[in-house]
Amino acid sequence: MLPVLAVLAAVLPGTPALAAPTVPTGARSLESVNYPGRYMRQGQLDPVSASSDAQTKADATFTVVNGLASPACYSLQTKSGLFLRHRDFRLRVDANTGDPMFRADATFCPVDGSVAGSVAFTSYNYPSRRIRHRDFALWLDPFQDTAAFKADSSFRVTAPWTPKTNKGPVIPGLFADPHLTVFNGRYYLYPTTDGYAGWSSPYYKAFSSTDLVNWTDHGVILDLGPDVAWADNSAWAPAVATRNGRYHLYFSGGAATGAKQLGVAVADTPTGPFRDALGRPLVRGDQFSGGQAIDPMVFTDTDGQSYLYWGQGVARAVRLNADMTSFDPAQVRVVTPAGYNEGSFVFKRNGTYYLMWSENDTRSEDYRVAYATGPSPLGPWTNRGVVLQKRLDAGIKGTGHHSVVQAPGTDTWYIAYHRFAVPAGNGTNRETTIDPLAFNADGTIRPVVVSL
Ligand code: FUB
């Protein structure tokens, strides 16, 4: 049994004593408090025991993930990649369409359950209703202030009947475009929040880890609507770089009209809170002809000079000024390699610079990563081909928009990237995973061994 309230008070430090309870994300099962031995099983409350068959156990296992409609709440994803949602006030499981109604129907907000250590789930879009069992089916019923209702709507969050066996996704739920980096010896992961039709998510979260396996969720670090005057959607593909003890979050933002634009926000810690540094875009959507102003990335060379790279369709690069929030527009170079679509990433190893990028469309199972090498952060670049691509025998598709990190003090390297969520994902339902990145003796990159 997991102590629901206590566990995540530690994960989300500073949670006030009377705040809504938090639920540990990851693989879990949910047991009725008044019918012990019965668990949420898709849209039912069914008996599950050690002697149940594997399918029953799998059906009674959910991954608790970031709420599809709000990071303050949760969604429950089945082993088959579907989400628990209400429709006609019955609970059932369906594939995420990414539209606002589905995401709201599939988001539930925790409140204290009827007994210590239990939790009840209110509906995100019908907050006066809670998930409860009735005739051993799960319903979304209006709250009643009775002992019977409270018991019928309370669940203990237990260890999962079917434990997670895959390494990935490294953070539960739908996150894409991961920027994996190291600050002060700790790994930080900054992804796009996924699961939204049209990639319209408005906010960024940050995660951190010491071992690339166990991750702390630091919550929302920038929410475009309230935090950025010129953008309120399409919080895509962030990148974070540090200089002089400050942290700079480079981000994409969209508004109701106009092209996507790039911004930069600043904070005193890697996990924010970040505030818009300029109050206007760093790169306007109409500033340069050709391509979209998305997918920013910053590389800082060993001499301390930082470079900004960005672009979909056209890859651009420029030296950043020492303030990290400005550059000379006249110095912007087009560095588009053959095959380039988006997601530039630059790093340096043994004096060689590596420019990497994603090819094809992120909605294609053939989304993949290629690279070039060069003698400087601005090239010239020699194309070296594809190093990361789908692995259909394992059901892995759409592998791309990556980042590369060096384990501190070693020559061990990792590549973080997204793929269609396994199973049942697609180009707007993507998940983040990490694999080793290895080099040949001549410095070329070995094809990434893509693993589940
Ligand atoms: O996540 C939204 C967009 O999809 C990114 O900006 C692209 O790189 C692609 O991954």
UniProtKB/TrEMBL annotation:
Annotated signal sequence range: 1-19
Domain Alpha-L-arabinofuranosidase B arabinose-binding: from-to ranges: 29-157
Top-level taxon of origin: Bacteria
Coiled-coil ranges from the UniProt annotation: none
Organism of derivation: Dactylosporangium maewongense
InterPro entries the record matches: AbfB_ABD, AbfB_ABD_sf, Glyco_hydro_43, Glyco_hydro_beta-prop_sf, Glycosyl_Hydrlase_43_Enz
Keywords, comma-separated and alphabetical: Carbohydrate metabolism, Glycosidase, Hydrolase, Polysaccharide degradation, Signal, Xylan degradation
Biological classification of the source: Bacteria, Bacillati, Actinomycetota, Actinomycetes, Micromonosporales
KW Hydrolase (keyword) present: yes
Similarity remark: Belongs to the glycosyl hydrolase 43 family.
Protein's recorded name: Alpha-L-arabinofuranosidase B arabinose-binding domain-containing protein
